[in-house]
Amino acid sequence: MKRQPVQVIAEIGCNHKGDLNLAKELIRVAAEECGADVAKFQKRCNRELLTPLEYATPHPVPQNAYGPTYGAHREFLEFDVDQHRELIETCKAHGIAYSTSVWDLTSAREMAALGPMMLKIPSATNQHFDLQDYLCRHFEGEIHVSTGMSTGREIADLVAFYEDRGRAKDLVIYSCTSGYPVAFGDVCLFEIRNLMERYGTRVNSIGFSGHHLGIGTDVAALAVGRMMEAEGWGRFSHIERHFTLDRSWKGTDHAASLEPDGLRQLCRDIREVDQTLAMKPEEILPVEQVQRDKLKWLRARHAKAS
Description:
8-stranded parallel barrel
């Protein structure tokens, strides 16, 4: 069976700084200049997601704040349903899939109604089962869930939840370490192996969501996932990275994001390296046969020559 290409997700998130035109430009660059497969955003109903105290408290990092309180900061960065509808149309125009994370039940209802091919549950809310139950019942697309800051028991319960509702084959779970950025020693790529051994044949597929620096780690994630896939432990399907036009911009996620050159190289390397991750289909490849005929020392041949 021909394996499916790994999809690269450009996690734009809130890196648009609350500017719809900038969000559209990020889509264009991710699609046309970088070659990403998916542009992903975030959707929050902040009054539902935050407690009154959290809403009224100043942002913990004032230099990243877009408002006098954390709630005002989050509202400044939020797009409404009609704006997300515009983003979907922009994605279609540039030949890239749209997705968004949904952080609360209201956002899940709003975004499911738009009918994207997939929605994401962030690590922060992967134990919010009312939200996920709504998606299981009312959303027909894939449901992607990150597993950062989760215990093994929580992940097991999560998978069982989808199995009980007959939606496990629409579930993609991501190996993820929650941090911005994450030190290399905390990325722990062999968690991809753990997820695939335990759940790879029970869910749609396994992915990797990275918040580290550089792109070498993503290529290594691809190798781990493809090796497990080759050994029969399900499918490795997605690599997700935060994306910005300028890592020096104000905001929490920019420092852990790739700029256009980085995302372009990542997309290139994932596709090129993916071609190398295979067993030889025959002992001597055609490209080798040409060189074998010219260079290979073989006793029988050299005995005749002498």
